[in-house]
Amino acid sequence: MYLKTPKRYTSGGRRRGIISLRSILLLVITPLAVLGGMYIYENQAQFVPPVSTAVFDLMNRAESGVSTARAPQPTPTQNPASNINRANDAWMRGSVEDAVELYDEVISAVPNDLRVHYLYTLGLIMLDETNKLGEAAENTVTANPFDPNAWTIRAQAFISTGDYGEAIASALRALEIASSTAVDTNPEIMAPARARAFATLAEVYFELEQYDRALTAVNQALDVYPDSPEAYYVRGLINWFSLAIFDREAAMEDFQIAYDIQPSYHYIAVSMVFLNSELGGVALRDGETAQSEAYYNEALALSEQILELNPGYPRILQFLADYYFRIVGDDNQASDYASRCVRSNPTIDGCYYLLGRAQMRLENYSDARSSFDSAIQNVVTPNGDTPYYYWWAARSVILLDPGDCSTVLNYLRPGWDIALEQENGTLLSDYSDSFQDCGASVGLTPTPLPALESTPNPDA
Predict the structure, then answer these.
(1) Among residues of the chain, what percentage have pLDDT more than 70?
(2) In the 3-class helix/strand/coil scheme, how is 343-398 assigned residue by residue?
(3) What is the pLDDT of residues 131-143, one digit of tens each?
(4) Closest to 362 in 3D by CA, of 374, 350, 371
(5) Which of 134, 237, 292, 374 could bridge across to 352 with cysteines, CB 3.0–4.6 Å?
(6) Measured between alpha carbons, how far is 238 from 231 in angstroms, rounded to an integer?
(7) What does the alpha-carbon distance between residue 117 and residue 136 come to, in Å, rounded to a whole number?
(8) Are 194 and 175 contacting, i.e. CB atoms less than 8 angstroms apart?
(9) Backbone dihedral region of 387: left (phi > 0), alpha (psi from -120 to 50 degrees) or beta?
């Protein structure tokens, strides 16, 4: 069986006619093309402009399409002026929290605006935002390294973080720029700046407990500029804490002068709150109930004034937690204020400690232990309260699991060392009892007991 092939597709190829269709078309079209070209050439003045315009339009559209396809959509640049004005207004009315938040949104857009960087850094200091302080202080100096105030605020930032060597170096640099000659040349600007630098240097000496040097620097500040709020503030600290002076009433007078001069410096009001609280406690111990109530009411009034515009101001929340815990005995209220404090600023060890103490009274031992752990973790420089953090942490473990002496002793050992260094005799006695409860000699690593005994045996 095979397929029959049509004759037109035989192996000899397709048979052709005498004259092909292609030849006929060529003979017809060629003369027409020649005649058309001659006509266009002779009338090119009419044809060239429209054609050129069309070609150029096509090329422009193609180029625009390519550039649009490749170029990203431009991001609009926000003008920081609006937020800066809002931040300045917030600062002037005393809302430091709002001002810092608004400055934070635009700070990177104004690298050379010294005033914005200065107030932003000062606000962070007042709100105890130590995690951001280092970068903020450096950026302030970068904004204008020839302005003494930039170096002064850098020194104040280092005071807040406990780096006193850097603080002294920065304060001295500020004094070098705001020299006596500079004050004589431009007293309106340089006199307050030089006084501020002297007061900051005095605060470093105060923190180092070099009270005589601190007082000398304060006096130098007031000699240069008698209305320096920073100088009066530091003199108040010296009058309060220096054992050689220890004049609380004089301290309060200095704080009041400073606050009257510069009411936007809330850290001055915070010191007045705590000093009023201390005076109230002294009066209460002396049986002067009415005087004690007056001091506490003054502290509460100042606190309310600050919280009205700064509801998350951490140091005020810390005071209120302490007040309701120690003075009023309202553990729920104390817990609420302490919780607000740690939410506002999770780096303040004292707020965690007060939260833990309130939770202990409320028998929330597990939460209390977590709070004491957070207090310990956030200690920058140990103070008089620090060994209590460890002791109460150990106490919370005892109440949770009396047999977990290994964990208890992990808290007691470092706390004991701090209490010993501070020569806190009463607390050392409590520590000693707790060591014995776990069958341990003070300062030694013991073998933990399976459980606390009703009558501890030190030799076990």
Answers:
(1) 79
(2) HHCCCCHHHHHHHHHHHHHCCCHHHHHHHHHHHHHCCCCCCCCHHHHHHHHHHHHH
(3) 899 999 999 999 9
(4) 371
(5) 374
(6) 11
(7) 7
(8) yes
(9) alpha
